[in-house]
Every structure is written in structure tokens, then in C-alpha cells.
């Protein structure tokens, strides 16, 4: 049985733990700076035990599933205290800052910058689900900076959980992910805020909310501890995207104010083409 | 068997047809100004036949499931050509314009302003699903303007399909629905546009899109024929809501530009409270 350390027992770390344990090939040791989550994870059987210092040198691999603001320090810590045979990958939603921080680390070649495109709006160990990664995409950044054998092991582990790996440069990853993930989270949070602001005075407004509303504000339930550092660390790309979004909203407001029926209809018909793209997303 | 006429064989009209036919108590006759949809609906067995003029006087009830721009004319047409025993209800997403138009019609008491809070992002007869209304809310506006017996029949028909009816004034309905439905549709359409604009140059961006993105842009697949008139006819309320949304987005941009970590975290944590509200939506 291979020994894997997982740092962070939330939605992502917990789901890796469950999925790996289901294969029957791994023993899982976990660490979490939240003692309640740690105890919950072990009580739930997500892990075989707590990751104690003395086990670190025996680990085959380490998965870092912590918020992106604390990730670089923890990445360095584990590159320092694990042995030459140990691979390490993170699961963070942004990659450039970590790539820069680790660039000159003597053990950089044992690290894989990795981002599984999988998640839900829930958080903590109880949010973990074993099939979270099945059929999903995993993005690996700057693969040339990792030792080929270490990279292969991490690629195969993701394949074992049903994922397909793609390779991308870290700065490209961060620029694109602002569009297809971070913007969705901001739009959803702010949509939630806008409706809650009025709801304070209008108690029965949510009676009228249907599945469309639920779908667009689903991500407003996401964890502030996870998402605040993501937004701040991908600030430059996210601001660019948010300004484009606000510009497009203002264009729509202008069309609406001027009763430009045909232009609005053409705009919406054009946007409809996104349907075939969305239908391909799992 | 009761005879029901359904005008419009799209998602909503088609789903009413299927649900009513499943009860075994209704014969359904349909009309659609799109001949392809009409033939499709009949071929699919959504209806027992086309609604011909001579059947109109025999109908027990009429359901109007047409875009809100053509709805007032069609509502008047059917109030004029059906008999005293025939109830009529619409299913439109806005109510004030129709309420005003019908206010002084001599047969106003046979009409129920009705809005089932149910739907999907798909359109046309093929989008119809028999269980669409099961467990959902139906909003009936200005119930005092309808004859009590007619109102009871329409209320019971919705209950028969598994819905719970609520009563509201038309102007209140339109104001609230802008927040919990129309805003979601605009935010989703414009999110889709923003991402598609950049995708023209970046072909592989959608590789990185996960379920969160799919959820927030799902409504961008909605029909322009349905939604353009809704947006335009609820323009005043929608503009107010859209401006509040853009203001809140600009506040977020400002917090992000100034790296206000604690304020962003508190904002998101506050918005998280919407979770328990969303969880109650079916």
C-alpha cells in the first residue's frame, strides 16, 4: 500500500482521500489546521490517521488542498521535509504565484502544479464525495519544470481517478480560469447580494424564485476562506474580466433603455451559441 | 373529458399539454403560429389535434403560453371568441401590461393572470416535460378581478398538476420577478457573451470550464423570442435591478483593487447566508 499525505481535509482534499481509498491501494494520512475538520475527517473514515511528522519521510506522495494564500509556504515546507522519492502536487485554482515561489527551490522537480477542474459549492470534510473527479479535466502547469518520472506518477494517479490531464503554462492557466471560473463565482456572489439587499424589505420575494435563480446563485454558497485569496491572488486577470463583464452589462442596459428590440434579440441569439459549448462540460 | 385549448406549444404550453393528458381527464387542442412546432406537437402526441375555430366555443378552458409581446392581443381574441363557461389563463413572466389591457374587458372575470414558476433553458415542443410543474409554485395576480368560480377552477387545475398557488398584485409580481428571474437571465446571457468574446481568440478556454461555469451560464441558452419581450416589457423594474447589480459589482471591483481582504471575506460570508434560501427552492 502506498502512503499519501493530504494537507487540507475540505471538499477537494477530502474527495481525493475518499477516491484514493476506494481504489484499495493507498493509506491516507491527513493534516488540517482546523482541529474540528481534522477530527471529523478521521471519524468519517476519510483517512487512516493524522499525518505525524515521523511519517513524512515515508510518504510516496503529498496532495496539498489548502487555500491559495497559505499554499506557497506549505509547498516549501513539504518540499523541504519529504525525501527524494516523494512527489507533491497542489490543487489550487491559481498557479502563477506558486510557480514563481518554487522556481528556484532545489527540490522543484518533485512538485507538480495541478488543478482539478472539479468542485461543488460546499466546503469542509462533509462536502467530500468519492466520485468528484470521475470524468473531469485536470490541468497541469509548467510540466517541463517537473522530473519526468514524478510527473508520470501524478498524471497516472489522476487517470486512476477517472480524470484526463491537459498541460498549460501557469500564466495562461490563470488568465483563462478568471473567465471560466472566477468570474462565475463573482457574478454569483454579487447576484446573491443584490437580491438579498432587496429581500430585507420584501420577505416573500424568494417565493417567486425558480430553478433558474437557484442555478445562477448556487456558487454564492462557496467558501469565503477559499475564494477571497483566489480573487486577490488572481487580481489582475480577474479585474480585466470583471471590467469586460460590467462593460457588457452597461451595453445591455443602454440597449434596454433605448428599446432596441432587434439588437437585443440578435445579441441573445448570438449568445445562444454558447449552448453547444456548455453541453460539452461535465 | 374536458376540452382545453393551448396556444403556444413550446416548453410551457407543451408541458401543460403533457401533464394534463397524463391525468386522463382532458382532451387537448393546440395552436401555434409556427407550423413546424404545431406539426411537431401533434406528431409527438402532446395534443389530440389542432385548435380549429369551431372548437373554440366548446372549450372548458384556454391556456395561453405565448411570448409576452403577443399575449395581450391573443388574450383579448380568446375572451372575445370563447363562451361564458370558459376560463382562460396565461403563463407569462410579466403581468402588469396584461392586467392593464384586460382591466375593462367585458369578459375580464373569466381571465386569470397566472405565472407558473417553472421552466428550463430549452424551448419548443421537444423541450416539454410532463413533470415540469410538480412541486412548483404558481403565482396568480389580481385574483379579485376574476370570478370566484373561474378562479377556483384554475387554482384546482394547478393543484392537480402538483403546484401550490400564491396570490399577489400584478405590479408587485413584476417588481419581484425582475430580481429573482429576469436578473438571473441577463447576468447569465452577459456572462456567456463576456466569455465568448475572449474565446474567439483563445480556443481552448472552455477546456477549463467546470460545473460552476455551466451552472451560471445555463440560462444563456434561453430563447431570445421569449426573453427579449420579457426584458422590454418589464424594462423599468429590470433597469433598476440591473443598475443595483452593476453598482454592487463596481463596489467589489473597488475592494479588489484596494486589496481589502477582510472586507471581501466579510462580504462573501454575509452572502453565504443565501444558501439556506436557495436550498428551499425546487
CATH topology heading of the largest domain in chain A? Rossmann fold
Highest CATH level, the class of the largest domain in chain A? Alpha Beta
The CA-CA distance between the termini of chain A, in Å, is 31 Å
What's the SSE pattern of chain A?
A: EHEHEEHEHEEHEHHHHHH
Radius of gyration of chain A: 21 Å
Q: What share of the residues of chain A lie within helices?
A: 40-55%
List how many beta strands of chain A DSSP finds: 8
Identify the CATH architecture of the largest domain in chain A. Answer: 3-Layer(aba) Sandwich
Strand order of the largest sheet of chain A: 3-2-1-4-5-6-7-8
Q: Round the mean pLDDT of chain A to the nearest integer and report it.
A: 95
Major beta sheet summary of chain A: 8 strands, mixed
- Supply the number of helical segments of chain A: 11
Whole-number total of structural domains of chain A: 2
Residue stretches of chain A low in confidence (pLDDT < 50, at least 5 long) are none
- Helix/strand class of chain A: alpha/beta
Largest interface, counted by CB within 8 Å of the partner chain's CB: A-B, 94 and 94 residues
Global outline of chain A: globular
CATH superfamily assignment of the largest domain in chain A?
NAD(P)-binding Rossmann-like Domain
Oligomeric state of the chains in view: homodimer
